Amino acid sequence: MAHTVRARWFLLLVLSAILMVGCSTEQTTEGASAGNGTASASSTGTLGDGNTLAVPLVSGHEYSPEDRMGGGFDNPASPLSKRVFYFDYDKSDVRAEDRAILVAHAQYLANNKAMSVTVEGHTDERGTREYNLALGEHRAQSVRQLLQISGAAPNQVEVVSYGQERPAAVGHDESAWKLNRRVEIIYRRQ
Amino acid sequence: MFTRVLRPLCLFLLMGFVVFPVHAINIDINGGQEGALPIAVVPFGFDSPVPVPVNLAGIIASDLKRSGRFAPLAEHDLISQPHTAAEVHVEDWRLLGTANLVIGLVQRSGAGYIVQFELLDVFKRGNDARLTGLSINVGPNENLRRVAHKIADLIYKQLTGDRGAFDTRIAYVVAGARRGRHDNAHTLQVADADGYNPASILTSKEPILSPIWSPEGARLAYVSFESRRPVIYVQDMLTGRRDIVAEYPGTNSAPAWSPDGRRLAVSLSKDGNPEIYIVDLESHSARRLTNTNNINTEPTWSPDGSAILFTSDRGGSPQLYRMPVGGGSPERITFEGSYNAGAKFSPDGRRIVFVHGNGAENHIAVMELSGGGGLRELTHTNLDESPSFAPNGTMIVYASQGALRVVSVDGRTPQSLEIQGGGDVREPTWGPFNKQLGE
Q1: What pairs with residue A118 in β-bridges?
Q2: Core-most of A5, A123, B106, B296, by most CB within 10 Å?
Q3: What pLDDT is stored for residue B30 in this prediction?
Q4: By a Cβ cutoff of 8 Å, what residues of chain A touch chain B?
Q5: Alpha carbon distance B122, A139 (integer Å)
Q6: Is some CB atom of chain A closer than 8 A to the CB atom of B195?
Q7: Judging by DSSP bridges, how do beta strands A182-189 and A115-122 pair with one another?
Q8: Which chain A positions have a beta carbon within 8 Å of B355's beta carbon?
């Protein structure tokens, strides 16, 4: 097991290196097929949405698909750069520190009607897959409600739950689980 | 020849001259099944120079072992290798202490075979010694592995009183099916109950969840993310035809068959919250059963068709609830532990199996529905999930950390169930009975 994990990390490093080169030299290629290695939108695309790539990568100047849309999504000074929100075990309440950031997303959506988001709910691997599908949905619904209360229009927010099926981090302990109990906001142009 | 040497030795031992190390009786029982019934399954004889393509005795022995109720002797511990009752020297087997002896013979018959087997009790005399036996005509295109499973079923029934469930099939999902390559393929497969003869019936880059056999065994319902969100399908395994059962906005998941095979109980979040519905497969109309702001999922239908059991966190933690199919107020039925979910009824409806957690680990547990209500943990490894009863109700298949395992309902040591081809195997569901020999 330890071997596989190490091999995956190695693969990740290699892949992220390749992707970094790819992204910096050819930013204008079809966004979705190129990789994005930012921590903020780590499991949203690339290479068939492989779980290996879903591990948050620490890397420098890459651009998420969102950033390529303009709007400064990857500017660390902007609240919009935070698009992954974490949850407590078996809970679907938005954490207090995340509310202001979600309100900023809602306001951005209110001011940019051409944009919309998919709100993806995820869980850690503990418990049954079906319960986790429902739990991920509840988490995503919590975020959706906050976005709509704060100004986003209903047709700008779509919810999907993946339950435990798309972990962001590989591993069978809390260090991985806490990264997997999450909601990801993925922007697209309507 | 071997027996000729051994028999005088046995006499010696019986007379009390224990001067030899008794390594011949050093029985190796892998998995250490306490109270498991010893049984000797002798390799079947064959009357032709062309060997039989499958090891019938090996399949029978591993079926019996996997049930947890039998401890087959290792082949090297067999004292001799008789193929007919006339060749059996009962004294040898009595000395081993193994009452139950299975012998058999395979003969060519045209392009097919005739398989004969007998189950003997070596402590009984004359005609009483023969507990059961059969001569089976096997056509050229018939699967000899299945013949072995059917024989194991008859032996199991003769010695335990319960119908065997070895000649059955399981379905399950394999993630990253190509071993050694990390890819994202999810494959829905069907295999014999011992993990052999796997066949893929659906492959997708997106997750596949919750396959479940229809009562008659011809169809599978499951959840597929192939359209990038969870949608419920029913697939006919013979024709390959697929029908979408529910693709409402939100989550469509957790299908459970009605006993008559005409409806599915499901969890839909089309109205904003995961709720239990019953969907008619003919009209596709959906009738809502629950109404809360909480999670309601994993419905399962009682075998008599009257009640739905499901998982809900309405009480603060995931617990199991029961309600009438016609509607009504749900009654909580689990109170032990902080996590009880994913229940399935036993075929007789008297007990349920489910995932039980206390905050730290998840194990498989069973509970009788009448009387007491205490649960029994059957497994002790972590992250055990997706339990499913065998159609005879005596065994449970479940997934544990990427592999399938089988445990008897009375909690004997779980046995691993190796799927040919490997991968991360999950979400097992055990299919219904096939016809048994003599039916």
Answers
A1: A158, A186
A2: A123
A3: 41
A4: 8, 11, 48-52, 90, 125-131, 133-135, 137-138, 141, 159-163, 165-166, 172
A5: 64
A6: no
A7: antiparallel
A8: 127-128
Report phi then psi at B56, rounded to 5: -60, -45
d(CA B103, CA B39): 11
DSSP labels for B343-392?
EEE-TTSSEEEEEEE-SS-EEEEEEESSSS--EEE---STTEEEEEE-TT
Sign of CA dihedral A144, A176, B385, A44: positive
Confidence of residue B373 (pLDDT cuts 50, 70, 90): low
* CA torsion angle B269 B274 B276 B277 (round to 10): 0
Euclidean distance between CA atoms B318 and B356, whole angstroms? 10
Closest C-alpha among B183, B152, B187 to residue B167: B152
Burial A59-73 (b: 16+ CB within 10 A, else e): beebbbbbbbbeeeb
Cβ burial of B374 (10 Å; 0-12, 13-18, 19+) is exposed
Are B193 and B166 spatial neighbours (Cβ–Cβ below 8 Å)? Answer: yes
- Superfamily of domain covering B2-160: TolB, N-terminal domain (3.40.50.10070)
The superfamily in CATH containing domain A2-189 is: OmpA-like domain (3.30.1330.60)
Alpha carbon of residue B252 to chain centroid: 27
Give whole-number Cα distances, A46 to A42, A53, A63, A88, B184, in Å. Answer: 9, 8, 13, 28, 12
Give per-residue pLDDT as tens, B293-313: 999 999 999 999 999 999 999
The shortest CB-CB distance from A134 to any of B207, B267, B339 is to B267
Please tell me what DSSP assigns to residue A153. Answer: -
Least confident of A32-41, B133-142, B229-238, B373-382: A32-41
Name the pairing type of β-strands B375-377 and B384-389.
unpaired
Q: Where are the domains of chain A?
A: 2-189
Q: Are A166 and A153 in contact (CB under 8 A)?
A: no
Q: A50 vs B183: CB contact, 8 Å cut-off? A: yes
Residues A50, A33: Cα–Cα separation, whole Å: 13
Where along chain B do the CATH 2.120.10.30 domains lie? 169-430
Say whether A165 and B209 touch across the interface (CB within 8 A): yes
Rounded distance, CA A29 to CA A41, Å?
18
pLDDT tens for B124-137 read 988 888 999 999 99
Give ranges for CATH 3.40.50.10070 in chain B: 2-160
The amino acid that residue B226 corresponds to is E
Q: What is the pLDDT of residue A76?
A: 86
Note the pLDDT tens digit of each residue in A101-116: 999 999 999 999 999 9
Cβ <8 Å between B207 and A134: no
Q: Which fold has domain B169-430?
A: Neuraminidase (2.120.10)
Q: Are B304 and B348 in contact (CB under 8 A)?
A: no
